[in-house]
Write a structure and sequence with these properties.
mainly beta; OB fold (Dihydrolipoamide Acetyltransferase, E2P); 2 domains; nine-stranded mixed β-barrel; five-stranded mixed β-barrel; about 10% helix
Length: about 375
């Protein structure tokens, strides 16, 4: 069964679209903010993955035919904090899912409200929430009284045995970490200082054609600088490796003193690393044009990126790494643009597998990518 409707979006409705919900594929790229749909169906698959949780439903239409629907939610990392697991929903479960409809009418819904139905599909047996353990919602577990769990502080040495600054380990996202943090991951980021060409590129941006929505790898800024999620960094004598939870990207970066020569562009570009005092510096060139984050702010093919990693441990919190990402883009920006993120080291944090699923609509041709051979090289 399918029900569609419209309503005026007020502040309460907007609050349901949290920063966690739109930090990966952009919500605006696929879904409407003022058109809503409700579907009843049978679960055929539950994909508890990043960047988005996906519930597949077989929905029976009025004429008796069956349409496969995709119900999309925010990241599995956020759901996991509330108690959700990869087996919380099973094939055969009957559900009602309500939320935002797509721009083009494709059979997808952004999860705003959802409920478990009985075997007849007629009666609601439990209202579910991404902010509550589903066993509690189903009456199979008691809701624990709010407590502040004592957590042992975790510190890693400031330096490696060989004397270099130590950044090796796994970090995790934590809201409010770092000076002035609060709100969404980009709440305190400065505006991009666009020049005339940059403003024109911004005006021409259509968020619906965000290439990452179609599971293209993210650009270096979006992956390394913008992500609110954790990463795993390992240091070796001649190189470092970095793995990212949000998009599942991996980088191997060798130490060197000279920037890579102009060459074929890629999403993560070509990078070198070096130590300067207590900081780790990474510089990247040969990037494809891309967005700096999920809100569709473009950077050009002339951009280069500088990442600075420093430790800002807090005796009351634990070991923290500050990442400072600067974009130098003479084609689009009047001056360098810098954003900061703060991550807490954790010995037992586990990454959730990334499995990007493109929307159920046709991909526009050559979305925000160059196709001419000559544009593959920096002059």
């Amino acid at each position: 069964m399918i029900i569609t409707h419209s309503r005026i979006v007020v502040a309460v409705a907007l609050l349901s679209i949290t920063s966690g919900a739109i930090a990966h594929h952009s919500f605006q790229a696929t879904f409407q903010s003022d058109e809503f749909v409700s579907v009843d169906g049978v679960v055929t698959d539950f994909r508890f993955r990043n960047p988005h949780v996906i519930i597949y439903l077989d929905v029976t239409n009025d004429d008796g035919s069956v349409t496969k629907w995709m119900a999309e939610g925010s990241s599995a990392t956020g759901w996991r904090r509330a108690g959700w697991k990869n087996d919380s929903l099973k094939s055969g479960d009957r559900m009602r899912v309500s939320g935002n409809a797509t721009h083009d009418g494709s059979p997808m819904v952004w999860i705003e409200d959802f409920a478990m139905l009985d075997s007849t599909g007629e009666n609601v047996i439990a209202e579910l929430s991404t902010n509550e353990d589903p066993l509690v919602s189903l009456g199979k577990a008691r809701k624990a009284a709010p407590t502040v769990a004592a957590k042992e502080l975790y510190f890693i040495p400031l330096t490696l045995p060989t004397g270099e600054p130590n950044f090796s380990g796994i970090t995790m996202q934590q809201r409010g970490l770092g000076p002035g943090r609060g709100g969404g991951p980009d709440a305190n980021d400065p505006d991009m200082p666009y020049n005339e060409a940059g403003e024109a590129a911004l005006a021409a941006t259509d968020i619906k054609d965000d290439p990452q929505v179609f599971c293209d790898p993210p650009g270096a800024v979006r992956q390394a600088g913008y992500t609110p999620y954790g990463f795993k960094l390992q240091q070796y004598p001649d190189h470092i490796t970095i793995e990212y939870e949000e998009y599942g990207s991996r980088r191997a970066i060798f130490f060197g003193d000279e920037l890579p020569k102009p060459g074929v562009r890629s999403h993560l570009g070509d990078s070198i690393a070096r130590y300067e005092g207590d900081a780790l510096i990474i510089e990247t060139v040969n990037l494809l044009p891309n967005y700096s984050g999920h809100r569709g702010k473009p950077i050009s093919e002339q951009a280069r990126v500088k990442e600075v990693y420093t430790r800002i441990d807090d005796p009351k919190i634990g070991s923290i790494v500050q990442t400072e990402t600067t974009v130098i883009d003479p084609k689009f920006l009047t001056k360098p643009w810098t954003i900061k993120r703060y991550k807490l080291y954790s010995p037992d944090y586990e990454f959730i597998v990334n499995e990007c699923v493109p929307p159920l609509r046709e991909r526009p041709p050559n979305v925000f990518q160059y196709s001419e051979f000559d544009s593959q090289f920096v002059n």
